[in-house]
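Data card: per-record layout.
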Amino acid sequence: MSIPQIGSINNPVTGVFGTGNVQVFSSSGTWTVPTGIGKVRARMWGGGAYAGGGGGFAIRTIYDLSGVTSVSVTVGAGGTSTSSTGGTSSFGSYVSATGGTNNSTGGSGSGGDTNTSGGSGNSSNGGGGVGNIFGNGGNGASSAISGGAGASGGGGGNTSAANGGSGLIGTGGSWITTSGASIPPTSGISGTFSIDLIGVGGGGAFQQPGINGGGGGYHGTSNGGVGGLPGGGGGATSNGGAGLVIVEW
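The structure for this 249-residue chain is written out next.
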């Protein structure tokens, strides 16, 4: 994921932080403290579960980096059929966000100034949406109802009559069997890029993946209902979306 620098980012809640520098971690690594930098803001999403809950979210500003030269960054993996729970994302020991669990609850943030949870999901229906700064992710649907709305939408239910849940801005998908057509979920991000709007996408309907943190819809035989990046829970028999860590200074 490519993140623009200061002047191109529109964050309606958190604004541009510090000098406006941003580093995105889509895989684990190390953040090196630049010379003269005394504070940092880290936000993270845990991985979505295989056929289960969405990842949790946390954001924290660390004001004292005295004596700190680097911080280890862990990015939680999305759950798979062999390792079903989503991985935990963390910024050193300062703040973390756990992943969703298979056939159960979403992950949660810990140690942040703001901590939210992913929505729940289960192996018969849709995956849960990831949490973000605006609140908790939507729950994956149960039975033939549509996915729950939230800061990110849950996945759709287990029939073609059930839509994906809408996120804060992104809309959930729908599946129309009578015409063979489907309307995919939307991400909610358009125009000027916003880090704040990562994780507000819609959940997938029947046989659809989620988008921008939305949970995947039910898919009984293949991976059509994968969770949307970052941290969306997968629908039945589907992988969860990987987590993400963003560091600003």
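Known properties of this structure: Residues 213 and 230 are 5 Å apart (CA to CA). The longest strand covers residues 40-45.

See the next section for split statistics.
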